[in-house]
Amino acid sequence: MHAVMICSGARTPSPRLLAHPLIDRLSVITETGHTARYPGHVTVETVDDIHDVEQVLGAAWRILRHGPVDGILAPYEVGLPAAGYVRTAFGLPGPGHDTVAGFTDKYVMKTLLSRAGLPMVPFAGAHSDEQVHQRAAELGWPVVVKPAHGGGCKGVAVVSGPGEVDRWLSEGGSPGPRLPTVVVEREAEILAEYHVDGVVEDGRIRFVVTSRYLEPVLGRIGQGDPYGSYQLPLDHPDHEAIAALHARTVAALGLRSGVTHLEVFATPDGFRVSEIACRPGGGGIPAAIQQRHGVDMFDVCVRTSLGLPPLPEDTGWEDVAGKHDGVPWFGHCGLALRQGEITEMTGGDELAALPGVARVDLLSRVGDVISGHIYSASGAGFVHLTADTEEQVRERLAAVRELYTIRTAPVPAAG
């Protein structure tokens, strides 16, 4: 089968995607200057800006001149809007333009979910600097401000007054000509934060796993502390309620087939839906799900993008959720990154010796230079572990945090 992957220049696709067994021929649409990361057998078309859907559509036309395409693959957040646009233009499987808009434009998303009666934190949309100030004052300080498009907590901030809004706008938060909308939300009192990862087939939820973050994500990125989450057993009192919110959210946004990643807050007033994406979760989340349940979310993403069933025909969904039930609690911890050259970092052997550790994946090492934006899912590596109780899994994840160290040195500017 021939798949076209849409990927921004900021992302390096997983080798598993570049060599997926279902893809006989792979073409890539990426941004100018980033062709060298793809092997020679891959056809690469470039655009100036992956957000420019007309440019991406033109690149897709150039690929189609050389033969038919079976599906559009967009495993990362930034490529999703263009992928939906191209699918609709060519009648290809997977979420089309309208559906993807509900999963990528946070203002559209929250508006549709609010209309459907989902419990939300109060929010408003703003389309100019002046409106950001107005909406913030109307909602009441402090507020959370974020671009309507984007992921990984990039550009998301808590602001407590007009001066902080001006600072955020001057640092790049200002609505731009291509992606002009800002979402302004009343700051919630977050008691706990969860992520829900699911598989949808023909409009039905066929697999779902609920996980709890060690602490809310916003405000911790780039601080040098590891972050992580642990999966809740199916009989956990929070799982059923949060999984039901996930099902209602998917139905409200009209996803027929694909993978989902939902964020949910626990507040004094109950659970509140935050945001949902129609792509695999970031960081170590897919690996944690695959280890615990045997479901490869990236494989599901490929299959549904090609119009195929989410799992091979010989895999029964009734068997999936029960795999590895001998391990009641499963957690993972991301090893945080810092900007600069890594001068010191805890080694894999030290981390593997901690109680309950099942697997350590190190992605960075001493001497590596870390540059660019650090997203919520960025990590120097990931530690996966098991436990017998919820208290124990939290303790073991905390032990990873206590042991892990990373130090960096500034890198002199070139020239």
* CATH fold group of the largest domain: D-amino Acid Aminotransferase, Chain A, domain 1
> Unreliable segments (pLDDT under 50, ≥5 consecutive)?
316-324
- The CATH superfamily title of the largest domain: ATP-grasp fold, B domain
Rough outline: globular
Report the C-alpha radius of gyration, rounded.
21 Å
Helical content, roughly? 25-40%
Summarize the structure.
With 415 residues, this protein is α+β, with helices and mostly antiparallel strands.
Describe the structure.
It contains 13 helices and 19 strands. With 415 residues, it is of the alpha+beta class. It folds into 3 domains: 2-92, Rossmann fold (3-Layer(aba) Sandwich); 122-186, Dna Ligase, domain 1; 192-409, D-amino Acid Aminotransferase, Chain A, domain 1.
Indicate the topology.
Elements: E1 2-6, H1 15-18, E2 25-31, E3 43-47, H2 53-64, E4 71-73, H3 80-90, H4 97-104, H5 106-115, E5 123-126, H6 129-139, E6 143-147, E7 157-159, H7 162-173, E8 182-186, E9 192-201, E10 204-213, E11 227-231, H8 237-253, E12 258-267, E13 270-277, H9 285-293, H10 297-305, H11 317-320, E14 329-335, E15 340-345, H12 348-352, E16 357-362, E17 369-370, E18 381-387, H13 390-403, E19 406-409
Parallel strand pairs: 1-2, 1-4, 2-3
Antiparallel strand pairs: 5-8, 6-7, 6-8, 9-10, 9-12, 10-11, 11-14, 12-13, 14-18, 15-17, 15-19, 16-18
Helix pairs in contact: 2-3, 3-4, 4-5, 6-7
List keywords for this structure.
Rossmann fold; 4-stranded parallel beta sheet; 415 residues; Dna Ligase, domain 1; single chain; 3 domains; alpha+beta; 8-stranded antiparallel beta sheet; D-amino Acid Aminotransferase, Chain A, domain 1
